[in-house]
Write a structure and sequence with these properties.
about 1000 residues, alpha/beta, Serine Threonine Protein Phosphatase 5, Tetratricopeptide repeat, 5-stranded parallel sheet, globular
């Protein structure tokens, strides 16, 4: 790539913190521009070379930004001060043409209209020949076509479609596809929000994220509230008449944001009236100075020297005895080439700060990318030049420490990271800069970069347990479990009774299937922290995974006795109980309802009126909430459906992903969504607010009471219609959940349906299943070569209990030559199973263990199995389908609960009812019958994939069509004011409702 930029470029900064993701270009005054690596891609998504890229100084294209270009040589020109946000896309289609994007789509960090969190909107696609004005805000998902002009201070809402006549300065009224009513347009122009200061816009940014074209009544209410807020702000500004209240407004006629000069005159720096500082307390003065410094640092870093000049003039007017303001003013003038005018303020700075040698010379370049922080107004110490301070001290000053803390605690993470980097550069042997830089980068979602900086901080301060804890958490979030384990062990060595560190160490062992070690860690924690509910919850999960359900239930109850509001433990208890045959399904349903009632009682005030447009035929925004959008069973069912749902023009799909792990599956899934948001750091309230702001019409839960669920968000009812599906085969127990997706085999109408609070919606099959691409071909029935039949199990350990093994042992007794293969169970779990079999009189020589492997190896294990035996009362689902694709049927024993019918659902869809037992005796008899009928079993195996291919389970298009129809029926009922009702989406029109 041939990159061109400003003349003051000093080349590529290979050691910059962001150089692993970006080509970072440096400039003489410390400014940088950043280009994502592999920016240019062709139609096949391959990295390609282009003729040239010209990028202006201080321009930042976000991570994931791409340029889709043609095969010929092309040129892309990007103006100065461009901030692209996350995944900005440029489409270049005409060879040998110039495509220009200019100005500031989002504005400089720390001084902008706050945009929505970056992942919460899809890509904005910008075609060539587009001009975007200063501090315009692009909310995402837009297509901005050739010849479009977007003026200064404009907000472009989600999914805007641009046209050549453009959007003019300060007016969002000309938005094709978002045409406002005349009343809304009139109120918008009357509001004239573009005249308000940026701080006011930031304060009220949520109002600007609302689709003002969707609902006129709501839009007018929002605009009325904004108008009142503006009027109040204007009255307050006139009443106080303070210098800050009279801060000059942007000159809307300028090409860049400019500020009028305040009253203080440059040619007589000593005449500024200090009275404005007299009314401030010492704390207020210190805070104000810190704010001035932060603003000047940001403006200087971004090269916005005219703005810096105006702010510096304001600072000198309020604090004329502080040298920092005069120095910043002189440097701002100097950077604009006004050397003669810079001399007086720099001399004044030198008089006030005689140790700051850089202040006296207007010819000297700025030694740092950011100005040196000043002390508080009442401090006696004068400002020290950065280079002088490097030599004079090895630790940051208190003012720098306070400023770092203030920036971080106020959530200004970009500024905090920039200043922390400056501190780390000036004090490389002190841990503070590296620590705060790592924390700020983590808060911005830059896990890899944050990890590197925190490792540096640990090298300098190896006993900082707070940094060690954050580092370990980061490693865990990135799936680097073994490294996280070692970090937690080092932390425990520093603080032997750190309960959270012990809990997290146990979790890392759990994820490595070292269950015995994990249990020991949790029990050790309870010795010194017996009242720790989290440890009890984690221990309960460990016991459940080992199939020790009674112990797990007791442990969850102990956790809840300590903390009755620990809803995660309550969900885990319900999930555990669903695996026990000792719990009556009706009683289990009552316990789920009690959970829902308890949760919804705590959040009555959270239910707000939904203002979604009630057009029954419009495109529906459908949100999916899940923590399993990676290589997980839930994702394997969801992905084939998404391929078809994403093509439905009546649906716009939104993902809310509640996990930190991103793998190849996540990347594939993301491509099917209109919008993808990573929400695992968001609170339940914040997530509910985001879902409302996104205008979601139907929200689908994919977790139920399994791990990483967001049921507390659903309890806040952020969407008009809410559905539970796929991840949990039982009711959530919540009245705020309107529907449950299933089929007539999973939840037969009548008794089973009554176990759900949600209304049942029947699909052609519960979910689509796509066989793994790496699946090997089926083989000949192994019993024909072996001379004996091999039963098999691929179930997880917490489904295998003594009662299950007892029934399987009866099968092995009834077929004395048969063997049993158990795959995917850890060694300690397998040893426990062997003990259970031996207690039932089955010798261990008839048992075989196969290790847990990746998908291809896992499927290869089926070549050794003739018939799978299902667990109960929590039956297999994914395992049963994988086995069927490999030609292996599953003998299953369904019960009254939906969780017990997973195997029966698959066998019913494959028309193999001969493998569905009615009771334990029938289970054994059917096993014997099939073991004595090898020819039929061999023929079935040979044609199993053909049978699968004709089943609705394996036809995602059929299920997607049923779901699309179901979503539309749900929506139409809501627009008509009708309550949720059970229906079958596969029945003829007019006969769906049951």
């Amino acid at each position: 790539m041939n990159v061109k930029t400003s003349d003051d470029c000093i080349g590529v900064l290979t050691n910059h913190p962001s150089s692993n993701q970006f080509v970072v270009i440096g400039y003489k005054d410390g400014a940088v521009s950043a280009i994502p690596k592999d920016l240019f891609r062709n139609a096949r998504d391959e990295a390609v070379e282009v003729d040239s890229l010209q990028i202006g100084r201080c321009s930042m294209l976000g991570a994931g930004s791409i340029v889709k270009c043609g095969e010929g040589a092309q040129r892309l020109v990007i103006g100065k001060h461009v901030a692209g946000g996350l995944r900005l896309r440029f489409l270049l289609s005409d060879p040998q043409s110039t495509h220009t994007l200019c100005a500031v789509p989002f504005g400089p960090p720390g001084f902008r209209i706050d945009d929505a969190p970056a992942p919460n909107y899809p890509d904005t696609v910008i075609h060539h020949d587009v001009s975007i004005g200063d501090e315009a805000m692009l909310l995402g998902g837009s297509v901005i076509k050739s010849g479009c002009v977007i003026g200064a201070r404009s907000v472009v809402p989600p999914h805007f479609l641009g046209e050549p006549y453009g959007i003019y300065e300060g007016s969002p009224a000309r938005l094709t596809g978002f045409r406002f009513s005349e009343r809304v347009r009139e109120k918008l122009l009357q509001l004239a929000w573009w005249d308000m200061p940026l701080d006011w816009l930031k304060q009220h940014r949520k109002a600007f994220l609302i689709d003002l074209a969707a609902d006129e009544g709501r839009a007018l209410d929002v605009l009325a509230e904004l108008q009142q807020a503006k009027d109040d702000a204007m009255r307050a500004a006139h009443a106080t008449a303070s210098p800050l209240a009279e801060a000059p407004q942007p000159d809307s006629n300028a090409g860049e944001v400019r500020y009028a000069a305040p009253a203080a005159q440059l040619d007589d720096p000593g005449t500024a009236d200090p009275a404005s500082a007299d009314a401030l307390t010492a704390d207020q003065a210190e805070a104000l100075v810190s704010e001035f410094i932060a603003t000047l640092n940001a403006l200087s870093t971004l090269g916005q020297h005219q703005q810096a000049e105006a702010v510096a003039r304001q600072m000198t007017a309020i604090f004329p005895t502080l040298g920092f303001g005069w120095k910043a003013l002189g440097e701002a003038l100097q950077q604009q080439g006004l050397v003669d005018q810079a001399l007086a303020p720099l001399q004044r700075a030198s008089e006030l700060s005689p140790r700051d040698h850089a202040a006296a010379s207007p010819e000297a370049p700025h030694p740092e990318a950011t100005p040196t922080p000043a002390p508080a107004p009442d401090a006696s110490e004068t400002v020290v030049a950065p280079r002088a301070r490097k030599q004079a001290a090895a630790a940051p000053q208190m003012t720098e420490t306070k400023r770092l803390a203030a920036l971080f605690n106020s959530g200004r993470m970009a500024e905090a990271a920039a200043f922390a980097q400056s501190v780390a550069n000036r004090y490389p042997r002190h841990p503070l800069g590296w620590k705060m830089l790592g924390l700020a980068l983590r808060a911005q979602g830059q896990a890899g970069e944050a990890t590197d900086r925190l490792r540096k901080a640990i090298e300098l301060a190896p006993e900082d347990h707070e940094v060690m804890l954050v580092l370990a958490e980061l490693l865990k979030e990135q799936g680097r479990v073994a490294e996280a384990e070692q970090a937690y062990r080092r932390l425990i060595a520093l603080k032997p009774e750190h309960a959270l560190a012990h809990n997290m160490l146990g979790q890392t062992l759990y994820w490595q299937f070292r269950l015995g070690e994990a249990e020991a860690v949790f029990r050790r924690t309870l010795e010194f922290a017996p009242g720790n509910a989290k440890t009890l919850n984690d221990l309960g999960l460990m016991l459940q995974l080992q199939g020790r359900l009674a112990e797990a239930v007791d442990t969850f109850h102990r956790a809840l006795a300590i903390d009755p509001d620990y809803d995660t433990a309550r969900s885990n208890l319900l999930f555990c109980l669903s695996h026990s045959e000792d719990v009556d399904p009706d009683d289990l349903a009552k316990q789920h309802r009690a959970f829902g009632e308890r949760l919804e009682r705590k959040l009555p005030a959270q239910h707000k009126r939904h203002t979604n447009s009630q057009d029954p035929q419009r495109t529906l925004r459908v949100g999916f909430v899940s923590g399993d959008l990676f290589e997980h069973a839930v994702a394997s069912f969801l992905e084939p459906l998404l391929v078809d749902l994403a093509r439905d023009p009546g649906l716009a799909l939104y993902a809310y992903y509640n996990h930190s792990i991103v793998d190849d599956v996540s990347v594939r899934l993301r491509s099917h969504f209109h919008n993808w948001a990573s929400v695992y750091r968001m609170s339940d309230t914040a997530l509910a607010d985001q879902i409302r702001a996104d205008g979601i019409d139907i929200l689908i839960d994919l977790s139920g009471h399994t791990g990483r669920n967001r049921l507390q968000t659903f309890a806040r009812k952020p969407a008009p219609i809410q559905v539970s599906w796929l991840g949990y085969p039982a009711t959530t127990g919540m009245r705020t959940m309107d529907y449950f997706f299933g089929d007539r085999f999973l939840v037969p109408p009548g008794e089973a349906e009554n176990q759900f609070v949600e209304k049942m919606v029947y699909l052609p099959a519960p979910a689509p299943f796509a066989p793994a691409e790496v699946a090997p071909p089926t083989n000949r029935l192994p019993a024909l070569a072996n001379g004996y039949i091999t039963f098999g199990s691929f179930n997880r350990m917490n489904k295998l209990r003594p009662e299950v093994i007892k029934l399987w042992a009866q099968v092995l007794h009834a077929v004395p030559t048969a063997r049993m293969l158990i795959a995917g169970v850890a060694e300690d779990g397998y040893n426990k199973l062997v003990d259970w079999f031996e207690q039932e009189g089955i010798d261990r020589t008839r048992l075989e263990s196969r290790p847990r492997l990746q998908m291809r190896g896992y499927l290869q294990h089926h070549h050794a199995v003739d018939i799978c035996l299902d667990a109960f009362p929590y039956a297999g689902a994914t395992t049963t389908l994988h086995a069927a694709w490999m030609g292996v049927p599953t003998l299953t024993l369904p019960g009254r609960s939906a969780a017990s019918r997973g195997g029966a659902v698959t066998m019913s869809h494959l028309a193999l009812e001969g493998f569905i037992a009615s009771d334990p005796t029938d289970f054994v008899e059917k096993a014997v019958d099939w073991a004595n009928n090898l020819s039929t079993l061999a023929e079935l195996r040979a044609r199993m994939r053909e049978r699968c291919a004709h089943s609705a389970y394996f036809l995602p298009g059929v299920i997607a069509e049923g779901m699309s129809r179901a979503l539309r029926l749900m929506w139409q009922r809501w627009t008509e004011g009708k309550p949720p009702v059970a229906f079958d989406s596969s029945l003829p029109l007019g006969q769906e409702v049951l």
